Amino acid sequence: MDVRSLTIDQVQTGLRNKTFSAMELTTSALAFAQAENPKTNAYLLFCPERALAAAAKVDELISNGEMLPPLAGVPIGVKDVIVTKGVRTTCGSKILEKYIPPYNATAVDRLEAAGGVILGKANCDEFAMGSSNENSAFGPVRNPVALDRVPGGSSGGSAAVVAQGTAVVSLGSDTGGSIRQPASFCGVVGVTPTYGRVSRYGLVAFASSLDHIGPFSRNVADAATLLKVIAGRDSMDATSAFAPVPDYNATLAQSVKGMRLGLPKEYFAGLASETASKINKGIEVLESLGCTVEEVSLPHTEYAIATYYIICTAEVSSNLARFDGVRYTARSEKSDTLSDMYRNSRGENFGAEAKRRIMLGTYVLSQGYYDAYYLKAQRVRNLITQDFAKAFEKVDALITPVSPFPAFKIGEKVNDPVQMYLSDIYTITGSLAGIPCMSVPCGNTVEGLPVGMQLLTKHFGEETMFRLAYAFETAGGFAG
């Protein structure tokens, strides 16, 4: 059974028609994923017992003639910063190498309640900190499109399993572009929903005011289905929104004629020519569908990198303080005192990027620097949010690049943190504003490397975003 190109609809149709059983599909998917994984290192571990038990429940529903839930039998990968009860969750870090959570993330509970079959945990940058998936303590992920290239980060494993065909869909997390950039580099669809649209309960915290859980898929309809399943208010997460969740798939095919699209001028300056060419062709496709295009300005964009790396590192400093060797983390055995145990456990088990961000965050929160850095960054964040609000008074959606360049070679930027941070320059603004954003493929470079186009809409405007993306896909825009 070839599982590489299956969609959610095709899985559901195959189960209903009894072309295959959920158990047969899961067995084939696991075998294929385990055979392919050495090429990319996209999965950190597989959970066959859990997957087969979920498949057996789906087959029981079918045998009883019951209605199938929306993800029945669908093979899914889950980023290893999203906790899974009884299944190791490492966050790509040595400090959590042996951690087995006693509970599920809300998003995981909702996946499995909808019939989803979780095959395994996807590799990621340590604690979701990175733009290349080279910061994992368990080795880098290789891009399935070009094995000498990075898949993007931090959700590189989640993007790679979908691009490689070893999962139909997957869950990732996004703090400053960690869903959209890997989606762009791997040539798949990646969605960062509005902040609060999806519960963060069970997502190991990186930067709490910026973290999102979102889907990867090979087409827009699957991303819409997956988001509807995991979205909605959760009493376990005070930041989850009370806003009702629309049926995104019900409006996918509605016309986008007359939709007003904005092109932020700040996002197109200095863009690599080949990337710019693909984005411009994508815009032409949208214009051919009846959309109108106008230039807009987001004037505080130039301050976004500095703002983001002050706010996110401050929150990292606070959130990662809990990993100290006392309870569920790795503990140094070389210590004579409690303070040495803290110091050595963290020093031995955190990677370089985690240490760098902890130190930066501790500095900007320290006495005498809080007002100069952190408080000022929060004020600029508000100005960036206002830029988007003003733009959406004029247009229905914004179209931008996802990354200044396609996937770069493994090792190319690893020794230059500033250049690595700059690869997120087009994605962090949407994260700071908390608006929904997504990456859709818009063709390949002459070397065959995917290029992604970013769509952004106002808060809780995912329905508009999906309609636009679906129209683009249906018009052949993914092929460029």
What do these coordinates show?
The chain folds into two domains: 1-256 and 297-396, Amidase signature (AS) enzymes (Alpha-Beta Complex), CATH 3.90.1300; 260-296 and 397-479, no CATH class. The chain is built from 15 helices and eleven strands. β7, α8 (273-288) and β8 (292-296) form a beta-alpha-beta unit. The chain has helices spanning 8-16, 22-40, 48-63, 106-113, 156-164, 180-186, 220-230, 273-288, 304-319, 338-349, 352-365, 370-394, 417-422, 428-433, 462-474; strands spanning 43-46, 75-79, 117-122, 169-174, 189-192, 212-217, 260-264, 292-296, 397-401, 437-444, 450-456.
Summary tags:
39% helix; 15 helices; 2 domains; eleven-stranded mixed β-sheet; Amidase signature (AS) enzymes; 480 residues; alpha/beta; single chain
Provide a concise account of the structure shown.
By secondary structure, this protein is of the alpha/beta class. It has helices at residues 8-16, 22-40, 48-63, 106-113, 156-164, 180-186, 220-230, 273-288, 304-319, 338-349, 352-365, 370-394, 417-422, 428-433, 462-474; strands spanning 43-46, 75-79, 117-122, 169-174, 189-192, 212-217, 260-264, 292-296, 397-401, 437-444, 450-456.
Helix and strand arrangement:
Layout: H1 8-16, H2 22-40, E1 43-46, H3 48-63, E2 75-79, H4 106-113, E3 117-122, H5 156-164, E4 169-174, H6 180-186, E5 189-192, E6 212-217, H7 220-230, E7 260-264, H8 273-288, E8 292-296, H9 304-319, H10 338-349, H11 352-365, H12 370-394, E9 397-401, H13 417-422, H14 428-433, E10 437-444, E11 450-456, H15 462-474
Parallel strand pairs: 2-3, 2-4, 7-8, 7-9
Antiparallel strand pairs: 1-3, 4-6, 5-6, 5-10, 9-11, 10-11
Helix pairs in contact: 2-3, 9-11, 9-12
